[in-house]
Amino acid sequence: MAEPLRIALAGLGTVGGGVIRVLDENRELIARRAGRPIEIVAVSARDRSKDRGVDLSRFAWVDDTAALADQDGIDTVVELVGGADGPALTLARRSIAAGRSFVTANKAMIAHHGLELAGAAEAGGVAFKYEAAVAGGIPVIKGLREGAAANQLSRIYGILNGTCNYILTTMEREGRDFAEVLAEAQALGYAEADPSFDIDGVDAAHKLSILSSLAFGSRLAFDGVVITGIRHVIAADIAEAAALGYRIRLVGIAEATEQGLFQRIHPYLVPVDHPLAHVSGSLNAVVAEGNFVGRLLFQGRGAGDGPTASAVVADLIDIARGEYGPAFAMPVAALSEQPAADAGGRVGKAYLRFIVQDRPGVLAEIAAATRDANVSIESLIQRGKRPDGSAIVAIVTHAGPERAVAEALARLSDSPSLTGAPMLMHILEE
Amino acid sequence: MAEPLRIALAGLGTVGGGVIRVLDENRELIARRAGRPIEIVAVSARDRSKDRGVDLSRFAWVDDTAALADQDGIDTVVELVGGADGPALTLARRSIAAGRSFVTANKAMIAHHGLELAGAAEAGGVAFKYEAAVAGGIPVIKGLREGAAANQLSRIYGILNGTCNYILTTMEREGRDFAEVLAEAQALGYAEADPSFDIDGVDAAHKLSILSSLAFGSRLAFDGVVITGIRHVIAADIAEAAALGYRIRLVGIAEATEQGLFQRIHPYLVPVDHPLAHVSGSLNAVVAEGNFVGRLLFQGRGAGDGPTASAVVADLIDIARGEYGPAFAMPVAALSEQPAADAGGRVGKAYLRFIVQDRPGVLAEIAAATRDANVSIESLIQRGKRPDGSAIVAIVTHAGPERAVAEALARLSDSPSLTGAPMLMHILEE
Fold first, then answer.
1. Is the ipTM of this complex over 0.90?
2. The domain spanning residue A185 has which CATH number?
């Protein structure tokens, strides 16, 4: 059998430990598939003394993470440190400069520095791979870069954050409110102590920007993603959505339009018979639409040590097989610069929810604002009274331009009848 | 840009025409992704004069299909002729022997001769690829061979035949009977004039045997697939299954067990909240379960010129990129010979349906037979009378060994109370 592929591994958290376990438990199978053994030879992490439940004594320990790049005899560096900049980025640059292939699960770093790193890898003739950065164990990077490569893709969308999906589907199943379910998720370890990257949609936006670039041949444009998280979804939204035939999911959606690249993270109402409506708990799912293949759906576990490590090792097997591919499906120089598309002209249905004082005239005020903004109402539910005496008004509009809905909300912004900000959620078309 | 990848294309039916259209319409995009243009230079088909709606004058026409293998300047031969043997196999052997890479959508040929061809391709250092042979446009071959390569896979199953799924889901939606829906599907071109390969499960079995080999590292074992088609599913089965919380799908399932390789095509009752229950019409879906990645689901269009051509061209892009990979995820010599596992010891729930004479004692007879065979009944529905005076008895058993259910049916085989053969369908576990 050929020479082993020799790995340096930076970061020994849950995913790093998972990579070691995958390579141990499936060692012989992986060698048969890869055509040669894959061996970790050096590791680095912050704390050498911590017990990680795996035997590290067989690996060289390197205190300075960035120095892994220069270890003798290393073919490939695996970065599981995290963070858009700092040690992860330093390691990435040094590894590629030193002629190592580079594998990472670091979506933030790719969203911000992916093109620089991919360009350097191209110039150096090494692999730059990141299957684990999007949707955990689901081979969606490969699915887009290779599986759907014959297609012009028009749209890509999906459920990209397991924490948000766990919270939303738990709220849905148990009828509970956001804050309560979040607190429970934190206690169970399903949500971070500081959950904002997840629940405010930033993590999903990192992933979406990567998928967009891959799908549309455009340069990474994380700054062009319009982001709304799930913090303001209340139990009543989920109940009203259900009454109207929808479920609520945090959806990342990207489209190549004539006006440019549209990228949005947003809590969408998803029709109950749409595949995404059946994605529960911490699962992820991605849909891609191509001009010949039609609609492809990839679904699976989007996080956790096992699935994420599975994706990291899939990249290593590709590298062991000598299959490097272009990191963003084509050379970096061939990616096009796309302006961010203005969403105002997009046509679709919307869900609007108001918490209002339960007194005469409030409904007339809302109805007048929507009429004056040319927003046509498909259905409306008013329910009162809530424990504090307020009432809920939930509206689904007919399909119309998003800017009309924004105008209706602007007309109501100073209304003393409304308790708090209204909630706007778009509705995913079939 | 580098030299084009030069293709000879055999077979100009709907898929062949689709490949030409993909390469025409997405020409520039494909060249950017592949790193070089992909050009068809020669074609062959039975009838040169037929109008196929594409301009063939720019290609060399070769009358003798097998002679495509020896055309000067060809890198890769694409075979879309079909048939397990005959011209397709001759072309495959000659192409690989002549040092060409080889791409095919021919599941029958792979199921029967895949190892011979993969071995020859390995020896010759050329690619042998067949993404389009299973599940049309869904990149499931790549998903297993590469995306899930880090995992020991324990089970793979899915909806592999679009014609059967179209018929079953149309029966489900419209409450109509099999023969009527089949006739309509034939009239619409969704089913072949001779539909037996599809509806009797042979096509799905070809595909399943390929997935098994890829997933489990076992040698292709088409003869080990136990096949039941959908011919005997009646409208009442679908209605009773629905009343019990299930939908009926033709499922191909393969498992690596300690007793060997289990492979079965069978109309399964699928719980209504299982992802496969939501796969409608001619869609295909494949689920793979790995020891680290957990459960992966791939879904999309499993047939048709666009999706199938998309998969063929994805293979060509891989080849243009120089990424050949091992055809069955590892060298042919590394695949293991697995005995076929006996299904009798498998434990699961089953659905049994009897059409009986509506007279006293019939139910007691069925109940006695199940009791004597140690089959425990979870639920039973009796409905009469049908137009011909008979009644339906539908049973769902508790989980138990399959051989017990077989014994219960054997005990009833001579019963004069039964009108026709009983129907047995297994129930897919969550």
1. yes
2. 3.30.360.10
